[in-house]
Amino acid sequence: MKIQEKIPDQTNDIEQLSPVLKKLRQDVEAFKVPDGYFDSLSPRIIDRIQEQENRSFSKRFVLSFRKPLVWAPSIASVVVAVFLIFVIPAKKVSTLQVFDEWTEINMAYDASYAEEAVFSESITIDKELANSDINITESLTPSHKEPTADEIKAYLKEHETETDILNEY
Amino acid sequence: MPEYSDIELVELFRNDDKKHYAFNLLVRKYREKVYYFVRRMVIDHDDSDDVVQNIFIKVWNNLESFREDSKLFTWLYRIAVNESLSFLKSKQLRSYLSLSSPEAMMVKSLRDDPYFDGQEIQKRLREAIIRLPKKQQLVFNMRYYDDLSYDEMSEILGTSVGALKASYHFAVKKIEDFVTSN
Questions:
Q1: What is the pLDDT of residues A158-168, one digit of tens each?
Q2: Is any Cβ of chain B less than 8 angstroms from the Cβ of A23?
Q3: Tens of pLDDT along A93-132?
Q4: What architecture is the B118-182 domain classified under in CATH?
Q5: What global pTM score does this model have?
Q6: What CATH architecture is B1-100?
Q7: Which of B13, B30, B31, B159 best tests the A interface by mutation, with the highest count of A CBs <10 A?
Q8: What letter would DSSP give residue A29?
Q9: Minimal Cβ distance to B27: which of A3, A7, A41
Q10: Distances from the Cα of B14 to the Cαs of A60, A75, A116, B7, in angstroms?
């Protein structure tokens, strides 16, 4: 006869199996828990779940950056953006002329800056004249002789002007 | 607080807006049963607390895919059994480094336990249970303390009813011998 067949039906087996253990069976649990343990259990589990979800999100984020296909285009676009924002405008500033619209604005309140700008402009004009065919010295020097006193008198007489007026000076 | 059936709780959990609420209700419904089952297996309160939290985290992670061809309680109990056994196994591995056996450590933990409120004979009974093989411990605790039927135990443990009856029979006899020996 197998041992399973000897074992009584499951309904009240402890009474038949062991009256001693039947007596020891208690209604009150002998294991105790700290005060408020069960009330705090659910929030603590929820906290751990959220922590776990946050960790798995950041882990996914970090793992995604281990793939060059993800981070390489990002880094390339950052480099291009830095080049466009900082490097190209910086080059433009170095080729700016001294006398531009900003200089004009500055001249309104900074006389020294204005003088510098005018000086710079005159140098530019001098250079341009030097390279051109115009002879500035010739154009400024009078080509005719100084009139004599007789010539002046004759001119005034011709235009009916009192010659005595000249003697007053 | 409204009393929901297990099926209603699972349906509520599958609704994203009520997921936390449903989970809270589920924890409230089963926390004592799960805790005391684990506590009888691992003895120490702090260890039990860790195991219980792990059980409910597993429930959170897997409840959405829970198939309703088994009862929620049976499923929960199966997780509790697996988690408790895993914990005891890891404790056994750790005990290789120390001089005392895991059973001896658990008996010591029981004797020093500030959260054990029973007579000396009750301690002796628990000590006898600790000394049983793990499978017999499980069967004895489920039947003696939790009043589970052999059919329910069979579904949880995946063992035949006959084998469970035999395990229980041997467990009862060993415990009785230990308790009455002194």
A1: 776 565 666 65
A2: no
A3: 555 455 566 656 655 666 776 778 788 888 888 888 888 7
A4: Orthogonal Bundle (1.10)
A5: 0.65
A6: Orthogonal Bundle (1.10)
A7: B31
A8: -
A9: A41
A10: 24, 40, 78, 11
